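REQUEST ID: PR-0412
SUBMITTED BY: lab tech R.K.
PRIORITY: routine
TASK: structure prediction, single protein chain
INPUT:
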Amino acid sequence: MFRFRDGIIRPVGAPAVTLATEQTKSHQVGWDRVYKFRLTYSYMGMYYSFMPRATTTSDAFNAVAEPRRREILNYLALQERPVGDIVLSLGLEQPSVSKHLRVLKDVGLVNVRRDGRRMLYKTNAEAIRPLHEWAGTFERLWRNQLARVKERAENEMKK
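STATUS: complete
OUTPUT:
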């Protein structure tokens, strides 16, 4: 039986030794043969072939799954801003901010307005409504749970 460790397939129970050359392996390590295979690529489809991944532009939920996009939405919630302001305030690279804004725009979470050469972005409150309603169901659940915890703690204090 063999085990993959440190980029080398080794017999089970063999010590984890990193060796410089193939010639010294058999002398420094006490087993007959060591098969060395480097992992050259990983085909992720072999792990998740039964479940295709949804694109980020398929709906608002997939678009806001990325934390940086949520940061951008939070920043744009108060007023419309150009890309440069978003880059400076959030400390992200300009190309990545532009890509995130494009995804948010394609889904409809962000509106764009041209002002001369500048593109001004702001959140689209109507498109965010389904996200808010969906999150509201969990808010009610947690509010109920916290009320029960509070009630139980008060009952324990009375005893």
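NOTES: The chain has six helices and five strands.
REVIEWED BY: pending
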